[in-house]
Amino acid sequence: QVQLVESGGGLVQPGGSLRLSCAASGFTFSRAAMRWYRQAPGKERELVAQISSSSGTTTYADSVKDRFTISRDNAKNTVYLQMDSLKPEDTAVYFCNAVVVILNRREYWGQGTQVTVSS
Q1: In terms of C-beta distances under 8 Å and separation of at least 24 residues, what long-range contacts does 47-56 make, across chains too?
Q2: pLDDT band of 3, cuts 50, 70, 90
Q3: pLDDT at 73 exceeding the cut of 90
Q4: Alpha carbon distance 2, 17 (integer Å)
C-alpha cells in the first residue's frame, strides 16, 4: 500500500522557519521524482519545488526561490522542504507528491499539512 505522510506543519511568525517531511512507503522511492505543492484557500494548487530521482536536480517556483530548499534521503525514503524567511502569503496546505515512471507512470499524493504564517 502506497503512503505519503507529511509532517512538520504548524503556526509560525513571519520571518520564521519550518521543515516539512514526507515519509514514503509502498513504492520504489529512489526512482520517484518528488514534489511539494501547496494550496491556499480559494486558490489553485501550485508546484512549489521538485527534486529529480536520479541526479537530485532541484527546481523552485519563483515565489519561494532562495527561501525554500527541497532535499531527499533515499535511505530513509523521505523528502524534506526547508522553509526559511516565511511570509504570510506562504500560508497554505502543503502536499507531498511522487511520480514514478517504470514501464508506466504512477502518481501519488499525501494528505497535506497546514502551514500558517501569522503574527
Answers
A1: 48/81, 48/94, 49/81, 51/79
A2: very high
A3: yes
A4: 29
